[in-house]
Amino acid sequence: MALLEIRGVSKTFRTLKALDGVDIDVQAGTFHGLIGPNGSGKSTLLKAIAGAHFADTGTVVFDGHDITRATPYERARAGLSLKFQITAVLPELSVYDNVLLAMQSTESLPRLLLSLSRRALDADVSSLLERFRLIDRADDLAGELSHGQQQWLEIAMALALRPKLLLLDEPTGGMSPEERRVTGELLEPIKAHCALIIVEHDLHFIRDICDRLTVLDQGKVLDQGDVEAIQRSPKVQQVFTTRV
Amino acid sequence: MLSKEASELTVAAERVPERRGTRSPVLRRILPYIEGGALVVALIVPLVLSERMDLITLATNVLILSLLAISFDLCWGLSGIMSFGQALFFGVAGYAIALVGRDLEFSELWGTLPLAMLVGLLLAGLFAAFLLLGRKPPTTIFVALGTLTGAYAAERLVSGWQYVGAGNGLSSVKLLKIGSYEFVEGTAFYFLALGLLVLIYAGARFLKQSQLGLVLAGMRQNEERLAFFGYRVQLFKAVVFSLAGLVAGLGGALYSYHQGFIGPGNMGPGLSTTAVLYSLLGGSGTLIGPVFGAVTVEVLSYVLSDIDAIKPIWPVILGLILLGVVMFQPKGILGLLVSDRERIGSYGRRRRGG
Questions:
Q1: Distance from CA of A135 to the nearest CA of B (A)
Q2: What is the ipTM of this complex?
Q3: Range(s) of the domain holding residue A107
Q4: How many domains does chain A have?
């Protein structure tokens, strides 16, 4: 059984049919890319998975649980983590505290009040910051980081929740080519314990790190399959040469 | 243009290692010194003022109202809950212990103060359940209006209720006692109030600096983000709001015992708004700031109302001073001394020496 099963998901905004009967399976431990022209419904689909809004019809089943109408809190607890398109680090807290905040989210309220896990989580927070090349900025405010570093911090925070599935909405937006390359390197090791859904405009980046691709066009699945198959797909080539 | 920005980003990223080992000066903390200084002053005050009973009474009153100020700061300064009804929990607890004294002839400290705290806790918990724990997250304005309405309704209710003295309130409240010792106005009551204030303050400070305090700090910046982490944001708010009710309840009981009186005006929007002013004036979110705010407002009221030349118009002058501070120093008096960084707080362990 797939980790995430999306069946017949539709979403309409007033008269605009943003999603129209979308079916997607995401297997555990795979990196799954969502591509398509602007307005094809990529972000809408990602938000329906994350719970930022609900699908009008269809079901989203995650790890055996129907989460179609679950709250963001319930989804997070089930093991779903989201990195926002617009960076949403907490700018007035230190880099360290941003990660700690994400990492301690499974603790109960009394344990948080007594700060029982502050010491125990220190090593995990530090090693995550180390991995994302942020350890030297640990005491700086998150709002003082460069844009690319804020994106990395976001990914680190999303991973700190130890998710089974991570949703990344344009992780390399606004990054330099060098930062994009590093981002790919940073993501590679997580495959062992976490599946990934990425929405991204940079097709080179997608091609380099994803195993499978789903191409959306006008709210419908145009084609899906492994990266090589999609690259050869005539349907996809037509859409991307005429409208991108 | 874009590529220029991008290359600047790379340059910025490459510069990072130079920062290793440098300690940012903003990490210097001054709040503990301010808190320590305030405690020393509070300990000296009764010695200096021992000849002036009226001033000891004023000082005790300020300490008690500081509990109300801390109660509001727990709501707004720490949790971002705008409460215009903190006096409700203050007043109801004050009435509760006055009634226990009148009808049950009981005023032992070990029984009545915990009772007052429990009344504040449960009543605030009830309000939190209605205002905060709905399926949809409430807006700030909804909570503000809900608490305001509660305080207003309670003030009107007791104003017309004969059993609790209606508009006259309850006077000659039985004295607070331990065994056969009775606390009358004076130095002993002052130190009792100070001791309890220090305990509550230490508790609030502990909460602020805990991992729970980190969650609250995150919530104030981006509530939705915290929900995506898997935090039950509204439940956290409800718990802190209830604890704030407990603090207000303790304040109300002490007020009632100290003044020997509790009336409708002690639970309405008027006193609730005064608590908001304490916090805005002193600097919300710092805990000690609202205490300074309470001292400033109450001492200014006392001084201004005593100057013959301005006797009829002193509230106007006080109002103008407060307006000036709120307009020109929105972070309050403490905002002049304490950096944003320190006010918001650091929660993780800081690396020493890089």
A1: 9
A2: 0.84
A3: 4-243
A4: 1
